Amino acid sequence: MVLSALGFLFEGLRTAVLVLDALFVLATLLDAFLTPSPSRLAVRRTLPERVGLSRHFERRIELHSVAAKGLCVEVHEEFPLAFRVQGIRNDPSEGPDRAQMDASGRCELLRRYVCGRRGEYRFGDLRIFLTSRLGLLQRSTRYRGDQALAVEPALQNLSQTLRLAASDRWQDLGVRRLRRHGGANEFESIREYVHGDDVRRIDWKAFARRGKPMVRQYQVERGQELFLLIDGGRRMRATTTEGELRGWTKLDWALDAALELAAVALSKGDRVGAAVFEQGLRGFVAPARGALQLKRLSRALFDQQPSTLEADLANALRELAIHHRRRATVLVLSDVADPLSIEVQRKALSARSRRHRVVFAALDDPSLRLAAENLDEAPLLRACALELAQDRRRALQELSKSGARVLDALPAEAAAPLLAAWLEERRAM
């Protein structure tokens, strides 16, 4: 532009400017000729089919074209707004991936994503830009892409819960030890010793054969049924405000705890079913046993979101009594109602089917409990929090009059008391 302006102002420079312009045009044409079309690239994008909520996962894009070796490539990807980006070897922002094709014409682009909301999502098209060898132009193309990815409950402490449930360490969960019926006639299998197991159960012959402590496993009672009934109403919309799992709703935590408990129950040979309830039951899964049942439960419930409506516990228990007539332990994950509605909730629990032993798990609000316990909190705010906490204690006492077992727990800590309560109910049946 500057040279063109000088050529316009000074007649003696016009010839030189025209020559330079011609050379630039020739260089651009040569650069375009030597730069292959991005449509000739072999493109492959790899994504997992299912990931855990708030768990990082890797997306991989592989590009290949011998004609593009040494060229710089830039990839713009359409991804869901609920996903956050963390770069590995590329731009750590949410901008495009950039890299250079190697001597064999290959390139690999890695990126880490994380999603803080459960559900099914789709990754869209790829816009690919190739920078020419002289850097004078870019050629681009769009690759059509539509790949599904399901974000499911993360099951944060599943392995720890399974190990604990496999041992005799019920006291770690707050469960009193009960006398086991039947004794040696109920021997089931031999497994590796877990710290906390009763040393009297060590099988010394197996210890000698394998060179490590092994204990006898007894089956307490098989063939029992557990049904998980999870509130999907407005009370489950409250979110976690701190930590890496910031943004998790009470429903997220409830699903995590419920599926962990389901995994333990299924490992013991029990039949497990589940549903989310609001005005009625949603995502109903009939009780069954076996290794595939946990997948059925997860796939039926993973995309359930809390609504803005009040959940109807009475109607949910009536529907459950119709759909499931067998004897079972029903574990309700919800929260206590407001003082004006607590009597309705108590009557709902009182009117439950007599075939169902109900455990009602009330998930507290973490921020409210923190405000009530923090002595440095603003006096007015702390006074309000203490009053609400007192209302909650009265509500829990009122619900206990229904005959159902009532638990009080923080959402993030719910799995252990739920497991403890279920184990006591299981041994009592």
- State the domain count: 3
The proportion of residues forming helix, as a percent range, comes to 25-40%
Please state the average pLDDT score. 82
What would CATH call the class of the largest domain?
Alpha Beta
Strand content: 25-35%
- The number of helical runs is 11
- In CATH, the architecture of the largest domain is 3-Layer(aba) Sandwich
Largest sheet geometry: 6 strands, mixed
Secondary-structure-derived class = alpha/beta
Task: Strand order, main sheet: write it out.
Answer: 16-15-14-17-18-19
The sequence of SSEs as H and E is HHEEEEEEEEEEEHEHEEHEEHHEHEHHEH
CATH fold field value of the largest domain: Rossmann fold
Give the termini separation.
Answer: 89 Å
Instruction: Spell out the CATH superfamily of the largest domain.
Output: von Willebrand factor, type A domain
Topology:
Elements (H helix, E strand, L loop, with lengths): L1 H8 L4 H21 L7 E5 L3 E3 L4 E8 L7 E6 L5 E5 L9 E4 L5 E10 L3 E5 L2 E6 L6 E6 L3 E6 L5 H9 L20 E6 L11 H7 L3 E5 L6 E7 L18 H18 L3 E7 L3 E8 L4 H9 L11 H11 L4 E7 L7 H9 L5 E8 L2 H8 L5 H22 L4 E5 L5 H14 L1
Parallel strand pairs: 2-11, 14-15, 14-17, 17-18, 18-19
Antiparallel strand pairs: 1-3, 3-7, 4-6, 4-9, 5-7, 8-11, 9-10, 12-13, 15-16
